[in-house]
Amino acid sequence: MGRKTAVERLAHLLLELFERMRRAGLAYGQQCALPLTQTDIADATGLTAVHVNRTLQAMRAKGVLEFHSKWLRIPDLGALRDLAALGPHDPV
Question: What is the pLDDT of residue 86?
Answer without folding.
Answer: 81
